[in-house]
Amino acid sequence: MSTGGGAHAHHIPTAIDPAVASVSVVVAIVTAFLAFELAGRTLRFPDGPRRGLLTVAGVAMGGGAWAMHFLETVVSQTSSGSSYRLELVVLSAVLASAGAAIALALVTHRVVSVRRVLASGAVLAVALAAMHDVGMAAVQGAGRTHVHPVGLVASLVVALLGASTAMAVVSAIVSHRTGWTGRRRLIASVVLGGTVAAMHYAGLAGASVDPEHVATGSGVALSTSALAALLTLGMSTLLLIVTVDSGRQKRRAELVSDLRVIARVSRDIGRRGDARTTVCRATRELVGCDFAMVLEPDGDGSLVVRAAWGEDAPVRVSIAASGSVCASVLASGQQRFVGDLRTAGRVDQASVESTGAVSALFEPVLLDERPIGVLVVAWRSRIGMPDGRVRSIATLLAAEAAVAIERADLVARLTEQALIDGLTGLPNRRALDESLDASVARAARTGAPLSIAMVDVDHFKAYNDAHGHPEGDRLLAALSATWKAELRGHDTVGRYGGEEFLLLLPGVDTAVAAGVVDRLRTGIGQPVTCSFGVATWDGGETASALVSRADQALYAAKRSGRNRVVVG
User: Any idea what the CATH number is for the domain that residue 469 is in?
Assistant: First the structure.
């Protein structure tokens, strides 16, 4: 390639096909867009995978510019009958790709500076100019190409300005001063694609071909059809790589989203009382089903809904029902899918009609490999067998449901233990205080009488000293069982502390309460006696004031000789 012009040389732009020029510009813009998409993804990767993705992005960007150049060259009238030096074609592609990769590496650095932006623009501009000039030199057979200095400088200036502008846009996106949106990537792509085209055609505007001096060279030569095939193969490969990578990115994004929801479920199970509902909501969110519900045995031979999301029908399935899908899943601990519940013979049709379910995935809820419930994932339209992701999510969330159930049962047991006296099995003082407050509130609301009695075992310390503490514990347990058996179902007897007990007798006035308590006193059946203090709510006093009056009556009974009932 020469920098001078011959007498018979003609300018190359006269041979440019506008339609092909437009296609070549689009190629440059599209490949730049794909390159920026790949480069943007590198921010989410550690350095090792990041370098590999930047290399692919550089190949995409450089390959697009290279393809744009040779696409125009292949269909240009001036290239008719030409061939191309393979080593220079490859070199031009390497220069463009390497320069683009270096430029992207500079501008997508985790710390972006003005110096890096300018350096990336300069590297990319030089690489594109070198690619262009080497590509022009690769043409053989059409005549010697002459590039005038003005055209060369103009193409370099255009390349430098355009490449620096495109890299500045990318740096703004990368540094999170603005979002990495499709619109902004498109802006950067148009700038860069336009730059490549402007540089290419600015160079051609200052170039001419001398047909009297045919350019030749040694080495392997490519025909026009071979170069066209190479362009097609390269673009197809690039699109395949980007498409495959996009699929991987989509799956990775789905995984990240799934893990985020599952992490939220795990967190909520430790913080919320409705953890089963949280699991159902997450199931619907992740799987995309119409509703989800957790069924558990109710102790009476049926599976009932304990929590649901998207459906509130009161589903009840008999565990003993012959061939029931829920029952078989509960018994076997194996996942089952039913494509059409309406025609299946092993489902509860009443539940199907009440919920409108058509297809359902039944996932056993296992606790220590023991089935304790069933997670039902249902759709109101027919679907095929769910894919592995959906089935795996159902299994994982069923495990979370098992944790929720275990936690709920543990909380219930702890709550019960916190309100029950361990020795006698009666309500403890905390439970008695709560029951008394509720009884006073109910009496105030209904106007019904409310009586209570404080009880103390006479000379209990002496009994313990004489018979030992184990025997004293047995005595308290026996008294508790006797009194509990004698009272009505809605009466309450609890251990108030030590050897003291409290009786709650709702709906009972003073006279009746005194009779009931005296019957308890005479029916003890143990080698001890008890003293009782009775008080009836006066309609206005607090629960603590009522207890205080009963306590004073108890001490009056003890001072009077014990083994008696005193009304306060």
Answer: 3.30.70.270
| Residue-wise pLDDT tens digits, 536-560 | 999 999 999 999 999 999 999 999 9
Q: Which of 64, 57, 67, 122 is nearest to 89 (CA)?
A: 67
Instruction: Supply the pTM of this predicted model.
Output: 0.44
**Helix, strand, coil percent values for the chain (each to nearest 5):** 60, 15, 25
433 and 405 inside one domain: no
Q: In which domain, by residue range, is 461 found?
A: 429-567
How much is the CA Rg of the chain, to the nearest whole Å?
44
Question: How far apart, in whole angstroms, are the C-alpha atoms of residue 84 and residue 220?
Answer: 8
Q: Are strands 83-85 and 221-223 parallel, antiparallel or unpaired?
A: antiparallel
**Tokens coding 151:** 């055209």
Q: Distance between CA atoms of 505 and 341, rounded to whole angstroms?
A: 53
Q: Is 38 a domain residue? A: yes
Q: Residue 362: which of 378, 349, 350, 346 has the closest Cα?
A: 378
Give phi and psi for 315, each to the nearest 5. -70, 135
Contact 184/141 with Cβ under 8 angstroms?
Answer: no
497: left (phi over 0), alpha (psi -120 to 50) or beta: left
Question: For 472-522, how does the pLDDT look when each residue is reduced to its tens digit (9 = 90+)?
Answer: 999 999 999 999 999 988 899 999 999 999 999 999 999 999 999 999 999
Strand order in the sheet with 291-297: 316-318, 302-309, 291-297, 370-379, 359-367, 336-338
Whichever domain contains 326, its CATH number is: 3.30.450.40
